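# nightly structure sweep
# worker-07 picked up a monomer target from the shared queue
# config: single-sequence mode, recycle default, output format = structure tokens
# input follows
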Amino acid sequence: METLYVGVDVSKDRLDVHVLPGGTACAVARDGEGLDDLCARLKGLCPTLIAVEATGGFETVAVAALAAAGLPVVVVNPAQVRSFARAIGARAKTDPIDAAVIARFAEATKPDIRPLPDEETLRLADLVARRRQIIAMIVAEKQREKRATRAMKRSIARLLKALEKELSEIDKDIDDAVRGSPAWRAKEDLLASVPGVGGVTARTLLAELPELGTLTRREIASLAGLAPYARQSGQWKGKSFIAGGRAGVRCALYMAAISAARCNVVLRLFYRRLTAAGKKPKVAIIAVARKLLTILNAILRDQKPWQNA
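# output follows
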């Protein structure tokens, strides 16, 4: 059977599709009828992999429809696809060209297919993301308040009051979602058993890192953007650094690591050992965050709560 790779470029109104090898291309409307037509066409081709570029949420319905049809679909990072396009010299950019580049990217990299988050997980992820947005707005308004006139301070105070009320409502919605699911409640309790990990961190991981407990320590660190990348060429050796991954997860783990470096006996000793060896405090905290993630991954894998050594 021929190995086929399909690239799908998503826009607001339509989906552009490109199949390799052969270069067959088509476009369908991004509605129920168009998705049904696309699923029927692709099921007849039996593709090895269908790559859909993440496009601000527009791809969600298409990916769900393809997955429900039993097709092997994966969502790919648009930044990686664009870098790949530059690498192969594809400078022109139209929707059909983008679909062809996505297909070539899938053929070259063969990204792993992971189970898609269920509806409840997607809802929790939306709530956690919204909470992060509201906190960012509160921080921005408090910064503006420092240099605002008296009249503007009254306006900022009213807005801060409304934002804090909305934050309280979002927290209640998140709490209801997690505590209303026995599976999530058990996972949250396991994660929160680790000193330094609070409810916000645990729920962020549940929502935005559903793979936790199913991958190896190296894979989960890479997914969270906590795996250092080596920089070497010949005899030159540069400093390793972290990059990529899921920013929301990495931020939550960084804040948890700061707390764990103070109140978690094991991680406090680990942090002090690194700083005593000459590591800068921020570098040591990143190392603590990665170790913390490894611990949390093992706890969910083994279904055993934290125990002090």
